[in-house]
């Protein structure tokens, strides 16, 4: 069954100051399992530089330029040349990731494609369709470069090899009930290569191996507000020995171990199906909020470190910010949906060499 969820979940009137806060005894003390963190913009901050804008891209033209990393801000301000058109261009980007070859993959809801930007080889391509995609909302890659696409319209996860050729679906044996009703966000554990798939209509996270066998299920049908329960979970990331779930219907993040045991939660000011989620190798967590066009940055314990972004079209500004991805090169990719582009930011002032 195709899943369509358009309702936004809000925690009150959108104002500049978050009214909820908690007393935390020590900034250096990590919360214990079962701890709820309510971020405050004025308390609990730690020194942290916001990610630094490096470049943006939106079409095959950007990959094939002599200097693909140049800032295209002037193009955005001045507009494109009269009569200039792009065939291979982002139309409605939604999710973004990188693979082991450092290619950037972007799902596109209008084109119903997955774009591949290979800056290292100055090449642009798309996943070759073995099946017509309907609503590709999630994308992930494993160590071998295989690509996994969660399509909520098809109610399935599609698997492509590193050359972009369709291979198969992740699905049960013939005649059995489908794993998913409407798969959304997807993540792959780099160590075990277990696959975590959000299924918002069922309010669950499904865990599979690479052969498509179900290993576990987190949450419960019908949803809930308790620890380890979800209402419309839409995004998931896996780093180290834990996963983080964007529990959109409850406007919170839940941190679990890889077995699904609850560790802590982080309350968000707002969240919906367009919110993005990422976690870098230093365990900092990034959450996008399309209502105010900002990205929030939390430390591993859930303390708010900083926010960046605002409404606009210049570098570092967004219109409909959504999908996020932090890669091993200390690069944060941000989907700027209404501006039809991806913006790349260097994390914590690191060298820009790792940010494609």
Distance between the termini: 38 Å
Poorly predicted runs are 1-33, 40-45, 67-86
Please identify the top-level CATH class. Answer: Mainly Beta
Quick one: biggest sheet?
Answer: 5 strands, mixed
Mind telling me the CATH superfamily name? TolB, C-terminal domain
Number of helical elements: 2
Q: What is the strand content?
A: 35-45%
List the domain count as a whole number: 1
Rg: 19 Å
CATH level 3 topology = Neuraminidase
**Global shape:** globular
What spatial order of strands do you see in the largest sheet?
Answer: 2-19-18-17-16
Can you tell me about this structure?
With 356 residues, this protein is mainly beta. It is globular. Strand 22 (285-289) and strand 23 (294-298) form a beta hairpin. It has a single domain (46-79, 87-354), classed as Neuraminidase (6 Propeller). The protein contains two helices and 27 strands. The strands form seven sheets. It has a five-stranded mixed β-sheet, with no helix packed on it. Strands 3-27-26-25 form a four-stranded antiparallel β-sheet, with no helix packed on it. It has a four-stranded antiparallel β-sheet with strand order 4-5-6-7. The longest helix has 6 residues, at 73-78.
In short:
With 356 residues, this protein is mostly beta strands. Helix content is 3%, strand content 38%.
Set out the fold topology:
Layout: E1 9-10, E2 35-37, E3 52-57, H1 60-64, H2 73-78, E4 93-98, E5 104-108, E6 113-118, E7 123-126, E8 136-141, E9 147-151, E10 156-160, E11 166-170, E12 186-188, E13 195-199, E14 204-208, E15 214-219, E16 233-239, E17 242-247, E18 252-257, E19 262-267, E20 270-271, E21 277-279, E22 285-289, E23 294-298, E24 304-308, E25 321-326, E26 331-336, E27 341-346
Parallel strand pairs: 2-19
Antiparallel strand pairs: 1-20, 3-27, 4-5, 5-6, 6-7, 8-9, 9-10, 10-11, 12-13, 13-14, 14-15, 16-17, 17-18, 18-19, 21-22, 22-23, 23-24, 25-26, 26-27
């Amino acid at each position: 069954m195709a899943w369509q969820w358009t309702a936004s979940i809000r925690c009150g009137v959108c104002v500049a100051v978050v009214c909820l806060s908690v007393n935390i005894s020590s900034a250096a003390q990590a919360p214990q399992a079962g701890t709820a963190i309510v971020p405050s913009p004025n308390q609990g901050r730690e020194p942290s530089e916001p990610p630094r804008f490096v470049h943006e891209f939106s079409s095959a033209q950007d990959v094939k330029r002599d200097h693909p990393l140049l800032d295209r801000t002037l193009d955005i301000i001045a507009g494109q040349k009269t009569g200039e058109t792009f065939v291979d261009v982002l139309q409605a980007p939604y999710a973004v990731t990188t693979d082991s070859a450092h290619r950037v993959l972007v799902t596109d809801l209008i084109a119903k494609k997955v774009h591949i930007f290979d800056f290292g080889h100055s090449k642009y391509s798309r996943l070759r369709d073995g099946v017509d995609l309907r609503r590709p909302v999630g994308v992930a890659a494993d160590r071998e470069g295989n690509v996994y696409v969660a399509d909520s319209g098809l109610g399935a996860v599609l698997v492509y090899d590193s050359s972009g050729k369709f291979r198969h679906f992740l699905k049960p044996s013939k005649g059995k009930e489908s794993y998913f009703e409407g798969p959304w966000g997807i993540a792959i554990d780099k160590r075990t290569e277990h696959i975590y798939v959000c299924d918002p209509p069922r309010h669950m996270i499904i865990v599979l191996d690479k052969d498509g066998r179900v290993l576990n299920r987190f949450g419960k049908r019908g949803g809930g507000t308790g620890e380890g329960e979800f209402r419309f979970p839409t995004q998931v990331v896996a780093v180290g020995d834990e996963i983080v779930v964007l529990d959109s219907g409850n406007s919170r993040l839940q941190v679990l171990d890889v077995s699904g045991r609850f560790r802590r939660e982080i309350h968000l000011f707002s969240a919906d199906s367009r919110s993005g989620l990422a976690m870098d190798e230093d365990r900092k967590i990034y959450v996008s909020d399309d209502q105010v066009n900002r990205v929030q940055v939390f430390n591993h314990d859930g303390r708010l470190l900083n926010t960046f972004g605002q409404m606009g079209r210049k570098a570092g500004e967004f219109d409909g910010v959504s999908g996020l991805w932090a890669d091993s090169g200390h690069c944060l990719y941000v989907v700027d949906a209404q501006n039809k582009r991806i913006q790349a930011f260097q994390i914590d002032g690191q060298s820009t060499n790792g940010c494609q």
